[in-house]
Amino acid sequence: MSGLNLSKDKITELRILADDITSQISPLIKSHTTVTVERSVLRLMGLDGVDNDDVPLPNVLVNHLSGELKNGVALKTASAMLHYRLSINELAEKISNKEIDITGDLKTSTSEALDFLNEIVEQQLETILQVRSDRESMISSLGEGSMPWQYVIVATGNIHEDVIQARAAALKGADIIAVIRTTGQSLLDYIPYGITTEGFGGTYATQANFKLMRSALDEVSKECGRYIRLVNYASGLCMPEIVVMGAFERLDMMLNDSMYGILFRDINPVRTFIDQYFSRMINAVSGMIINTGEDNYLTTADAIEGAHTVLASDLINESFAKAAGLKPWQMGLGHAFEINPDIQDGFLMELSQALMLREIFPLSPLKYMPPTKFMSGDIFKGYIMNALFNLVGVWSNQGIQLLGMLTEAMHTPFLHDRYLALENSKYVMNNARHIGESFTVNPDGPVALRARNVIDETLEFLRTVKDEGLLESITDGKFADISRTVEGGKGLSGVIKKSDHYLNPFAKVMADNLKISEEASKWI
Amino acid sequence: MDIDNKSIKPYGDTLNDGSMQLSFTLPLPKGAHSTEVARRFVAQMGMNEVEVVLSNDIGEGFTFFVVYAKTSQTIDSTQVHVQEIVSKKWSREVCNEKIDEYFHRKVTVVGACIGEDAHTVGIDAIMNMKGYNGHYGLERYKGFKAINLGAQVTPEILLKKAVELNADAILVSQIVTQRDIHIQNLTEFVELADTSGIRKNTILIAGGPRIDNGLALELGYDAGFGRGSFADDVASYIIQELHRRLTGA
């Protein structure tokens, strides 16, 4: 035990409150679908590619069926495939060329179409499960790094260049490679197509880029003798579609936060809540680990005052994740090392927060973000701050350690910045490997008191959120001091109320596969 | 110590020793050959006594070097002039008092991070209530009406909002600078503002970690604030510049 002396009853109450809060949203999620959920259903059915104007075929088909989204696009699409004897791609291409129109009645009977659809669904689910088992067998034959896993980013904008940097990082000890997305992709209501070589502050998330990077990492995994994980970002307006691409291309982790888009990208709350649920089901089935974005709370708010909002968000993320079938080992719940370095005992408060989260979420691979807000042009001081961050990481046994770059806030990492980050972490973590089991915190000292305090503040906060309602609390600016309304934000026009005949065949089989059919019936 | 401002050199351990530390990566594998390449490369930059103190293999045939060397260059510092912002820095309290005294109304400031740049961190640091590092943002100032439009705002929307609110100042933030995207965005906004006729009564300010006053002026802004600037710097400048324009001082 850590010695923090946290109250089990309070922790139980925190979880009950979080479940009460998230279940307020379930009727909304159950009664609506979105354009990106429908596009991801089509992608799951095997649709991919773009038309002559570079419009992604899933968008072509969803736009074509815009009047029928309330029923879901799956059954109509399956009917049309049977009726015209076309593959799903051929169908979308012909619709794009205006050669056919499937909005009217089709000859195919519903039961025929349903049978055909179920065949497709079964087969495609099989593909995803195969990808998952490929990952599992690679990990068992190659092995993997020990936690905290060393996570570094590449962000050149050119996927070929990213590959070189990712390989170099893996050879020098990285366990996880994240390809940062180009700025602005989260607000695109479609997914760009093909291999890309230009981006700003990152590289486009496309299925072709996923494939290229995964195959490079497979190769370097064999050279290193350990499985190197690949991460991308399922956030923004195409959340579930990105996860589908990841499920097919064996990505291992996805940034996937239940409220990040709402608060920090001004995406409509309803849209985000619906999208995150289906995204997370796909993540769950495909065996990916999600990463949540609590660090963002601390880039706007003060890390000492805002500590309880991080815990609150972790609990809400956990509750939503559980509802979508994710297991604790798949929940990379987030937090960050963002206390002002000038503050006395700031390190102790960071340690307190990290140990507290470790104790509250014992089975989850916590995702720990490095200092960013107080990184300055003083790269030498930044390097020490990263060392202290690494010390807390190994001490509190974090799962996923995002390595800090000494040039953070200046430019995307240079090749040697990443190398220096890995050297820093290897040194600290190796030197202090068993520090966690060597020291117990004084239960009456500042570290323990602080942790208990944060729990009390979180309890109070979540009680208010529950009483007021989650959507109302978001409108009220309770999270990150940012106010978002149910009618506001981007992407609301892509939210559609379901009819009684609505069908998303994947949601049903995935719920069965995850053995959450009963719980899921409240959500889908 | 006898410092000659007409002939300045880096100071390592003694005056005019010209000592510098460099670190960089070459796309060559580690070894005696790449170390010699690194040494000669630095020598080509006009450096003497080049000492490669570290060469490390950083994977994929790249080598990282740390090098110490002495430069043969000097610079005449008396010939270097910079365009510094000339305003005096006031505290929040003084800013509020001066606004009352000068204008008898609130000063309206509209800000945004424009283009596809999704980072609100810069504009938030200056405008949001909390500010940054103990310096409260403009929202906390009694004398300011501060409207922060956030990130990924188009130049058109920012300008429209500024016109609508009859803004005294517009803050344009840019964080991402890859491929000089910030220059393009900032230029686009200035061109738009120029054609709208608001320049006379509205102060245009650019901000961001890679922006300085010189660059901002070059792009056609009235001022630029870079790394290390806080809300009080921006507030003081706005008040003094507005006052100057009003009084023709």
Quick take:
The complex is a heterodimer of chains A (524) and B (249). Chain A is an alpha/beta fold. Helix content of chain A is 53%, strand content 7%.
Tally of contiguous helical segments of chain B: 7
Oligomeric assembly: heterodimer
Helix content of chain B: 25-40%
Largest sheet of chain A: 9 strands, parallel
Look at the helices and sheets of chain A and give the structural class. alpha/beta
Write down how many β-strands of chain A occur, each being a DSSP E stretch of 2 or more residues. Answer: 11
Rg of chain A from C-alpha positions? 23 Å
How far the N terminus sits from the C terminus of chain B, by CA atoms, comes to 42 Å
Helix and strand sequence of chain B: EHEEHEHEHEHEHEH
The percentage of residues in β strands of chain A lies in 5-15%
Please give the CATH class of the domain at 144-450 in chain A: Alpha Beta
Tell me the name of the CATH homologous superfamily of the domain at 144-450 in chain A.
D-Lysine 5,6-aminomutase alpha subunit
CATH third-level topology of the largest domain in chain B: Rossmann fold
CATH architecture of the domain at 144-450 in chain A: Alpha-Beta Barrel
Please describe what this structure looks like:
The complex is a heterodimer of chains A (524) and B (249). Chain A has 524 residues and is α/β, with parallel strands linked by helices. In chain A, the strands form 2 sheets. In chain A, strands 7-6-5-4-3-2-10-9-8 form a 9-stranded parallel β-sheet. Chain A is globular, with a radius of gyration of 23 Å. The relative contact order of chain A is 0.14. Helix content of chain A is 53%, strand content 7%. Chain A has a domain at 144-450: TIM Barrel (Alpha-Beta Barrel), CATH 3.20.20. With 249 residues, chain B is an alpha/beta fold. In chain B, 33% of the residues lie in helices and 21% in strands. Chain B has helices at 32-44, 92-103, 121-127, 155-164, 181-196, 213-219, 231-247; strands spanning 19-26, 47-57, 63-71, 107-113, 144-148, 169-173, 203-207, 223-225. Chains A and B meet through α8 and α17 of A and β1 of B.
